[in-house]
Amino acid sequence: MSPLMVDKLGTIVPEITLGTGAVVCLMLGLAKHWLLRRIVPAIAALTLIIAALLVGDDATAGAGLASSSFVRLAILLVGLLLLMVTAAVPGQLRMTQRAEDRDLQGRSFEPGDVVSGEFFAFFLFSLTGAMLCASANDLVWLFLALELTSLPTYVLVATTRDRVDAQESGVKYFFLGALAAAVFLYGFSLIYGATGTTVFLAADGAPSIASYVTDCDDRGVPVSPLFVTGVVLALVGMAFKIAAFPMHAYAADVYQGAALPVTAMLAFVPKTAGFVAMIVLLVAVGWPLPDPVLWLLVIMAAVTMTVGNVMGLLQRSLKRLMAYSSIAHSGYMLVGVAAGPNLAAKSSDALGQGLAAVLFYLVAYGLATVGVFAVLGSLRGRGDEADTFDDLAGLSTRHPVLSAVLL
């Protein structure tokens, strides 16, 4: 193994820890003894805590986002809260309950009917992909990280609810996700064709996307149309991850079909990965952005905010409302992406006011979203279904504490 690879692996120890924990969860979830299966959520929580303790500072984080340590810690913190909200999901499935009942009665145990191992493994794998986006310094690395974030969520949507509409949502989510992946991967290929490299930033004058843009600026010539087209397609494909126009239409159906805790995960993890990927790519392109790229971001932001808020006003379902709320928030954050760093930023990899605001907003949005779904899940656990606005009527009288938290 080359020294360069060893150094790179040394910067992703938290991600390696999460991946290892996911494998352990997967194995314990298939164990014959019920006690080993019961400790899977605790193993997942311990994995998140250990990974958080292993996150180093930005100076040792290697190439990637300038605030990668902040992003990784934020993902792990919100991930731990999401784990608390989602821990009971596998045990609520009818096939899991039947398998556990057979085991307690001394009858044959069917590991294939129990999904707790797969659930928590996929949960950790998705968080791993989101964290890897922050340390990406290569188009191939970024593509694999985005897919590692998304692929587990397709399975979680379809398998964590005993209803046909969950399977329908999973299929829709998968095929639209495959389309989006094809779009931004095609954009990546055009960027490579224009620059001759897949590296975002490189030291010692080595070829990179950033050095290509800098060389064009030094010579007073615009970047090639092929490069601009590649960036535009990449951003359009990433819009799927953040549920932004024009790739937003799936959100309401998928949110409604998934289990409540999984919906909370969808609202934060893929969105965080998508915005981090956008920032990583655009930092290499540099500000001021090429006009077509800037106008794309501005139009996406304006239309996304409008669609999210107007369609949200028309909803009666709380989960569909949260879907359009998620879309609207993506529009708000796209404003920060378009603004980019302030003019006082000293280097191309420094985060300025706009990008730093996006990262802060992601954390605040994640905490608020987890809180909303935690309250709705708590109401359901107490036999008080809260699927529509009508179901919330009188909530302050029935559950004053939960009502205050939701407010």
Write a concise keyword list for the protein shown above.
407 residues, 18 helices, single chain, mainly alpha
Q: Characterize the quaternary organization of these chains.
A: single chain
**Sheet with most strands:** none
Q: Please provide the count of β strands.
A: 0
Mean pLDDT: 84
- CA radius of gyration is 22 Å
Helicity range: over 70%
Helix and strand content put the structural class at: mainly alpha
Approximately what portion of the residues adopt beta-strand conformation?
under 5%
Total helical segments = 18
Low-confidence stretches: 343-350
Give the CA-CA distance, first to last residue.
54 Å
Shape: globular
SSE run: HHHHHHHHHHHHHHHHHH
Structure description:
This protein is mainly alpha-helical and 407 residues long. Helix content is 72%, strand content 0%. The protein has 18 helices and no strands.
Write the SSE topology.
Blueprint: H1 3-10, H2 13-28, H3 34-38, H4 40-54, H5 68-86, H6 94-104, H7 116-134, H8 139-159, H9 164-195, H10 209-219, H11 225-242, H12 251-257, H13 260-285, H14 291-313, H15 318-339, H16 353-381, H17 395-398, H18 400-406
Helix pairs in contact: 2-4, 2-7, 4-5, 4-7, 5-7, 5-13, 5-16, 7-8, 7-13, 8-9, 8-13, 9-11, 9-12, 11-13, 11-14, 12-15, 13-15, 13-16, 14-15, 15-16, 16-18
What can be said about this structure in brief?
This protein is an all-alpha fold. It has 18 helices and no strands.
